[in-house]
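Build the 3D complex.
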Amino acid sequence: MTDPLERDSSGRFVKPPEQTPNMPTGADDVHPVGRLLFGWVENKRTPSILLGLVVLVIIGLTVADLLVDRHDYFDFANTVWFYSLWGFGAFALAVLSGWPLGHLLRRDEDYYGEAETRPDDVEADE
Amino acid sequence: MSSLVGHVNPGLVLVLVGILGCLIPVQRVRQALMVATPIVALLLLVFAERNTDLAVWSVLGLDLVTYRVDSLSFIFALAFLIASFLNAIYALHSDDRLQDGMALAYAGAAVAATLAGDLMTLFIFWEITAVSSVFLILRAGTKAAYQAAMRYLGIQILSGVLLLDGLAYVYKSTGSLELTAFTSLDQPGALFIFVAFAIKAAFPFLHNWLQDAYPKATVVGAVVLSAFTTKLAVYAFARMFPGFEILIWIGAIMTVFPVFFAVIENDLRKVLSYSLNNQLGFMICAIGIGTPLALNGAAAHAFAHIIYKGLLFMSMGAVLYRVGTAKASELGGLWRSMPYTAVFCIIGAMSISAFPLFSGFVAKSQTMSAVATFNNGEYMIVWLMLLFASAGVLEHSGIKIPYFTFFGHDGGHRVKEAPFNMLLAMGLAAFICIAIGLPMMGGLGYGWLYDLLPCTTSAVAADVCNVSGVEIKAYNPYTLDHIITQLQLLMLAVLAFMLLKRFGLYPPERPGTILDTDWLYRKPGYGLVKWFGTVWGKVGPAMTAVSGSLAVETFARLEAAFSPRGTLARGGLVNGMAVWSAVLLGLVMLVVLLA
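Done.
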């Protein structure tokens, strides 16, 4: 916090900047609540740990699937790995299609002469 | 409730107060009115008598039922009013009379249209939604917004004109404007009305107005727009076209195609617009199935969707408001500055992805079950398409939106958290997403939502449920096998995301314009019109001169022949004609006598 007795170059007293609860504070301008809730994402091992956790959950779900008597309407949906494979395949297909589709459909931002879309009611800090 | 108050359409109250709000210059007074009016309207709705005509106006010999509540209209009107209340809170930071007023009038028009008991009243409020909502785009103040607003207004008015045509046909053939379900598209007016609804529901090839206009609206405007127009169309389809099997396929296509566009789109508000299209597909598909379970699924999905889609638009609006952009390529790492917004966005993302304990799970599962069991599994392909789309939703709304905004690469933006009023609106929306998604625990949980569904019990069900004598079974989404299979679908999709990111196979977010079918009218179509304009500009004057001189000459000749002083009026010819007429008449009589 600025010293309340600090003077500026002309010798006048400088009012300390107003602190608002929403303003990021602390190291690296990180919001304290952000640090508390999401600080762990900065850890380099986090992606690997998350991947491990997801794999563990999937193994657990597979075991549970083997134990539970499912009664889906379609017979093929009753097989153990159906939903897993469908989820993985659908997601991968959607994402990987982005490569060719991007080449095919992406044009310059000003293609329609409408590059500026920032509305007037934005009060960005930057 | 007094007799007078009980007969006032709550939507009309919102429309009138909204128009009044445009004239109130004092921000706090105006906004207090904007927040309080939906609450008053909510009370009017909750205490309204069901299944009876509450207000009838006789105009030009027509009896217009301007207020009628049944179990189908109730849940849609309720969702609209809750959204209107949340939107008013979300807009408190902004001092914009026109936006405040038109947002309320727009919501009111949607509510009033939902509670309309005849086609003419529906048409009137249908048009008010179009006219009032366009200001939410115009107020963005950019050239792009102005042009998108004009395109938006054009197509919305076209929808209204088609609805008017349709209702005229209906009135001519039946003598009634009653809002009853069609049984076939061959009925007079049915096709016009179907297309009118299809435009507002953003059917494939009619959808571009949505992705064109919503991302260019103001921060508040996009949130407001996301709630009403398309869901009003969903309601209208449920009211007038339940069980039309063509809707099953249209809905299925609607769920799938936006997934591919959303993957490559960089503007996250546009991603949400594609996502909106995808979610509408589930509802339209359910209406096409048309069984009580499916109609409940459509209504539950619409209710949940209005809240979680609004929440997602709110979170992206907050980011746009603070950072100045909603483009994925420029964002990232905002958990450092906007952690509350991040939490609310994640709740919206988990809801739309249908994770257990969130609203999307209890809503979407009814539609999936209804599609699977309909006609002995006849629509297996459709069911697989919806299952594909469920994984697609997780990609664009469940992961892409929060990941590229709040996590991933740090965009270096160090901004303030969203204003308190925005956080409050997001917090309330997030609360609803969880409250109606939980398993039944005491008075809380999905049962609160399920009790409001249109086909819950035969006693209160709307006409469209067609359930007389049919036992409507209670639906429980929280069965062990359902939880396991849904989690398998989602967790393997999450695994796919992790692996694709890890191996560099996830396409990077790049700035650019993604071409959609609107390219046809925005480039070749516009070019053709422009070419005709240029040609006419050059040829027009000469053509006008030629046609003008031809017209003058033709008129002079006609006048010379037929005027009182003209050739044909002279005695000789008239006498001659009389002689020739007598000769011809004599010949005809002779032929007749001989025959």
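Helices of chain A lie at 32-38, 46-67, 82-96, 98-105.
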